[in-house]
Amino acid sequence: MGYIGKVPADVLIDPHVDSAAITDGTIVTADIANDAVTSAKLAANSVDSSELIDGSIDNSHLAGSIAINKTLLAGGTGLTLSTNTLNVDAAQTQITSVGTLTGLSSSDHVVLNNNKYFKVKDTAGSDIRVIGLANSNDVYVGFIDDATGTGNLYLRTSATNALTIDSSQDATFAGTITVGASNGSEEVKANRTRVRHIDGLADASDYSHGDLYVNHISTGNIYMQRATTFAGNVLFNGVVQLADVAQSIDFIQSGAINFDSNGDQTGRVLTIGSNRTGDSGGTTNVTFDEDGNTTFGKDIQRYASGGSAVTVSKTFQKTGTYSGDVEIVCTSNGWKSFIYDLVVIGHGGGGHWRGFAYHNAGITHGYQSISNNNGGVSAMSLSTSGQSMTFTVPLSSVTHILVEFRLSSGAGDLITTDEIAITID
Question: Which of 306, 350, 370, 357 is CA-nearest to residue 330?
């Protein structure tokens, strides 16, 4: 049956109308009911992303997972994206600070920039620099800039303090301090050193073979400012000098000065003098040799064993021939008793005089026990001038004269060798 106009829908029943009978574009969106087309009616890959409206697909309509490489996600600094895996790089050069760490371990060096330091917090919570390298390339360890720090610095080995430096900068070593190798030339230098006990090592194969050297290399002096006790022998290879006339060498108990006590040398001599350098120069006052001989360099002055008295001996010699006088002038501020003995001898004559007297502004109670002379040596005379007295012996062509004079004085001012002058003319 034919129809004029539109065909009723109920008449369009398969197989009367198939897709081939529908002209392309004859069915429009308005002819399709809402929700009439299901996903089952869509062929695979028939819907392209260009057919989707931006933002039309939300999370609730996504099933399964989306590959990261299908997104716009990139690795960024310190991160590496590999397909669907986002990796954290081992080197994180962009990190400049981190929060509080409960622990930190490193399999390689920990490097700080120059003039940077490791810090720790003290008990008050302040950051304290403890180790670092300054701009001057100097290494600092300890309380670097904490002026109020009162703690100690400990360097430890085997869980024991090997070196302790306290807040007063005093250092204590727990063990032995070794400087240099065996028999080396290394030194320990200090401005001031206090030592309670010094030992020279007794091992002959090590260091100084048991010897202790003090000031061994320097040309400076060694000062002992306290009483010093030597338990054994003391050997001086140089000159022993006393600082000034106020110093002395005292034997607190029995003592002796011995020459060559072990008998391995000969010709040992002890010399006492002034202005000498070592064993030469200056003035020799007295020498003692190992054979028991004693030699006095010049005049002898000997004090009495009791009371107030002194004996002065002077020897004088003059080469040549003389016809004048031997004069011995004795000067004192006040005489009392005196005893004299005078000998003059030379080629051409001689004389010997011995006597005693009391002198107090004049000679009294004088007595001459010996008075001998001969040849060109005439008799001796004694005169006074104030407190001075002069012994005069006239000469007549006497050659190479030798004079020996001894004077003892007591009770008054005691004569000295410097107050006796001998001249020959």
Answer: 357
In the chain the domains, ranked by start, together with CATH numbers, are: 112-148 (no CATH), 300-424 (2.60.40)
Pairing of strands 300-303, 127-133: unpaired
**Residue among 228, 180, 234, 192 at smallest CA distance from 212:** 234
pLDDT digits (tens, 9 = 90+) for 65-77: 677 767 777 778 8
Strand partners, 368: 355
- On whether the CB atoms of residues 417 and 301 are closer than 8 A, the answer is yes
DSSP codes joined into one string, 243-283: SSTT-----SSS----SSTTS--S--EEEEEES-BTTBSSE
User: Which residues contact residue 333 at a Cβ distance below 8 angstroms, ignoring those fewer than 6 apart?
Assistant: 387, 413
In angstroms, the CA 53 to CA 34 distance is 18
The residue with tokens 């929060």 is 99
Per-residue pLDDT tens for 135-175? 888 898 888 876 566 778 899 999 999 999 888 888 999 98
Edge to edge, the sheet with strand 153-157 lists: 153-157, 160-165, 171-173
Task: Please state, in angstroms and rounded to a whole number, the distance separating the CA atoms of residues 411 and 359.
Answer: 11
Residue length of the chain: 425
DSSP-assigned beta bridge partners for residue 318: 401
Query: What is the SS3 assignment for 158?
Result: coil
